[in-house]
Amino acid sequence: MPQFEKTARVEENCVACGNCVKSCPLSAITVYKGLYALVDENKCVGCGKCKNACPAGVIELYPKGGVL
Ligand code: SF4
Ligand code: SF4
């Protein structure tokens, strides 16, 4: 897996609006039990569309497999 490959992660304070879910071309985000968004890192390609769509600014991109 290339070092530069990224994945999106959702920080605290997600308001579960679902915008990221709609924006993701790979259906890599779901809103878990209507509470907060979760990214499936196995599907995510780090394109950043969800980050741009999030009104709360709680999505960041990280290197895949890296520690926070
Ligand atoms: S970075 Fe792209 S592929 Fe990954 S969850 Fe966000 S929209 Fe989907
Ligand atoms: S767009 Fe942002 S606030 Fe809305 S569900 Fe996704 S991560 Fe949460």
Helix percentage range: 10-25%
Our Rg estimate from Cα atoms comes to 11 Å
Approximate strand percentage: 25-35%
Task: Supply the helix-strand structural class.
Answer: alpha+beta
Q: Calculate the mean pLDDT score and round it.
A: 92
Which ranges are low-confidence, i.e. pLDDT below 50, for 5 or more consecutive residues?
none
Oligomer: single chain
Number of domains in the coordinates?
1
Which hetero ligands occur in this complex? iron/sulfur cluster
By CATH, the architecture is named 2-Layer Sandwich
Q: Report the end-to-end length measured between terminal Cα atoms.
A: 18 Å
CATH first level: which class?
Alpha Beta
Helices and strands, in order, run as: EHEEHE
How would you describe this structure to a colleague?
The chain is of the alpha+beta class. The chain has a single domain, classed as Alpha-Beta Plaits (2-Layer Sandwich). It has two helices and four strands, in the order βαββαβ. A two-stranded antiparallel ribbon has the order 1-4. A hairpin with a 3-residue loop joins strand 2 and strand 3. The model has no long low-confidence stretch (mean pLDDT 92). Bound molecules: iron/sulfur cluster (2 copies). One iron/sulfur cluster is lined by residues 8, 23-24, 26, 28-29, 39, 44-50.
